[in-house]
Design goal:
With about 425 residues, the protein is mainly alpha-helical. The protein has helices at about 1-10, 15-45, 45-65, 70-85, 90-115, 115-125, 130-135, 140-155, 160-170, 170-180, 190-215, 225-255, 260-270, 275-295, 300-325, 330-335, 345-360, 365-370, 375-400, 400-425. The longest helix has about 30 residues, at about 225-255. The radius of gyration is 21 Å and the shape is globular.
C-alpha cells in the first residue's frame, strides 16, 4: 500500500506530470517523423534519401555552430531572471542572440561562396557541392527555429515549444513530400526539407514578437551584454557542437567511405534509437529551467531531490522502449524496406549506448544549468576525439557497424565520466538509484 502511495505521489508531482505530457507530444512527433521516414524509404530512391540524410546531418552540425549554444543558455538565463524577478529582460537577451546568430550564419554563407566546388566534391569523393551550398544557405532559418523553440520553453510555453519541435518541424515537410511524390518531382526532396525551416522560423518569430510586445518592463536593473552572452553560451556551444558532431560525423564519414544507400540504411538505425533518447529529451525539456532556478536560488537539497526524481522518471519510461526496439528490431527495420535489415547489428550497438545514456540521467543539462559548462565542454571534446578516431578507423573496414561502435563507445565514455565528476564534485547522484 505504501509503495502504491509513493508511486501516486511521484506521478502527481507537477514536474513529473508535465514531463509525461511533454513525452506524449514527443511521441506524436516521433510517429509523424517515422511515418515520414517510412514513406521516404519505401517510395523514394535510396540514393535520394541518402542525399537528404547527408544534408540533414550537415545542417544539424553547422546549425549547431551558428546557434552557438544560445538555445541552451537562454534556459539558464530564464532561471536566473526568475530568481531575480526580472523576466521581462529576456526579450533584450533574445534580440541580441538573434543578431549573433545572423552574424555567424552570414559568415558561413560568405565562406560557402568563396570555396571552390571541386574542392568540396574532392573531399567527399562525390558530387555534393550543391547540397552543401543549399544547406549553408538555410543555416540562419534553421538556427532561428532552434532558438525560438527553446525561447518558448524559457517563457514557460513548454507545450507550444514541443508543438513546434515535434509537429511543425515535420508536418509541413511531410505534406510537401507527398506533393512532390505524386507530381513526379522527387528531385526537390532536399529543397523542400530546407524551405520548411523558412516557414517555421517565420511563424515562430511572429509569435515571440507579439508575446514580447505585451510584456512590461520590471523595475529590477539587470544588464546582460553581447560579451556576457558569448561568454556564457560559448562553452555550451562547444559542448553542443561537439555533441552534434558525435551524432553526425558518422553519417558524414559514411558518405565519404560508402554509398548514399548505406547512409540511408544507417540513418534509419540512428532514427530508431531516438525512441529511447526521446524520454531523456522530454524530461530535460521540463526539468532544465528548474535545475537553473534551484541552483541560482541556492536550494541545493531541492536540486538533489529533483535530479533524483528526473532520473527515476527517465528509467521508468525508457525501459519499455528499449525492450520493444530490441525484441522487434527485424520487424521494425523491415517496415522501411527489406534492404534495411542490413542495419540490424548497428541498431543493437546503438541501443546499448542509448541505454547507458538514459541510466546516467540528465548529466549534460545538470552541468550546463549549474555553472559547470566549461568542464562539460572539455569532457565532450575528449569524447569527440575518441569518436572521430574510431570512426576513421572502423568505418573503412566495418562500414555501418563500425560507425555504430564508434558512436556508442564515445556516448558511454562521456556519460559515465560526467556522472562520476558530478558525484565527486557535488555529491549529487544523477544516475539511477534505488533509495
Amino acid at each position: 500500500m505504501k509503495k502504491n502511495s509513493n508511486l501516486k505521489h511521484f506521478i502527481k508531482n507537477p514536474l513529473v506530470n508535465k514531463s509525461i505530457r511533454v513525452l506524449f507530444l514527443r511521441i506524436a512527433g516521433v510517429l509523424l517523423f517515422f511515418s515520414l521516414t517510412l514513406f521516404l524509404t519505401n517510395k523514394f530512391d535510396p540514393d535520394l534519401v541518402g542525399q537528404y540524410d547527408f544534408s540533414r546531418a550537415l545542417l544539424i552540425f553547422l546549425g549547431g555552430v551558428c546557434v552557438f549554444g544560445m538555445n541552451k543558455s537562454i534556459i539558464f538565463y530564464a532561471g536566473y531572471l526568475k530568481a531575480h524577478k526580472a523576466m521581462s529582460y529576456l526579450k533584450h537577451i533574445y534580440k541580441r542572440m538573434v543578431l549573433i546568430l545572423l552574424s555567424i550564419s552570414a559568415l558561413f554563407f560568405i565562406l560557402a561562396l568563396l570555396v571552390n566546388n571541386e574542392f568540396i566534391n574532392t573531399v567527399f569523393e562525390k558530387d555534393v557541392a550543391n547540397l552543401v551550398f543549399k544547406s549553408v544557405a538555410a543555416l540562419f532559418l534553421y538556427g532561428l527555429t532552434l532558438l525560438n523553440i527553446d525561447v518558448f520553453r524559457a517563457i514557460d510555453k513548454t507545450y507550444t515549444s514541443e508543438f513546434y519541435r515535434n509537429i511543425m518541424r515535420y508536418a509541413p515537410f511531410f505534406i510537401a513530400v507527398l506533393l512532390i511524390y505524386y507530381t513526379g518531382n522527387t528531385q526537390f526532396l532536399v529543397d523542400i526539407f530546407l524551405l520548411n525551416f523558412l516557414f517555421v522560423a517565420i511563424i515562430s518569430t511572429i509569435y515571440l514578437v507579439i508575446y514580447f510586445s505585451k510584456i512590461k518592463n520590471d523595475n529590477t536593473h539587470i544588464e546582460i551584454t553581447f560579451k556576457h552572452i558569448i561568454n556564457r553560451s560559448g562553452p555550451m556551444a562547444i559542448s553542443a557542437i561537439t555533441y552534434l558532431l558525435m551524432q553526425s560525423v558518422d553519417v558524414i564519414l559514411l558518405s565519404k567511405y560508402s554509398s548514399f544507400k548505406m547512409v540511408a540504411f544507417y540513418s534509419v538505425a540512428i532514427k530508431l534509437t531516438t525512441i529511447i533518447s526521446l524520454v531523456l529529451a522530454s524530461v530535460n525539456t521540463v526539468y532544465a529551467p528548474t535545475f537553473s532556478e534551484l541552483f541560482n536560488s541556492k536550494k541545493i537539497e531541492g536540486l538533489r531531490t529533483t535530479i533524483k526524481r528526473s532520473t527515476r522518471l527517465i528509467f521508468m519510461l525508457t525501459s519499455p522502449a528499449i525492450l520493444l526496439v530490441f525484441i522487434f528490431s527485424e520487424f521494425i527495420l523491415n517496415l522501411f524496406g527489406p534492404e534495411y535489415i542490413l542495419a540490424k547489428n548497428s541498431l543493437y550497438v546503438l541501443l546499448i549506448g542509448q541505454t547507458i545514456n538514459a541510466f546516467c540521467g540528465s548529466v549534460g543539462v545538470y552541468m550546463n544549468m549549474t555553472n559547470k559548462q566549461n568542464i562539460l565542454q572539455k569532457i565532450l571534446l575528449v569524447a569527440f576525439g575518441l569518436n572521430l578516431g574510431l570512426n576513421l578507423l572502423l568505418i573503412p573496414k566495418y562500414g555501418i557497424l563500425g560507425a555504430a561502435i564508434a558512436t556508442t563507445t564515445s556516448t558511454i565514455f562521456w556519460n559515465v565520466l560526467t556522472t562520476i565528476y558530478i558525484y565527486k564534485k557535488d555529491k549529487v547522484k544523477t544516475y539511477l538509484t534505488i533509495k
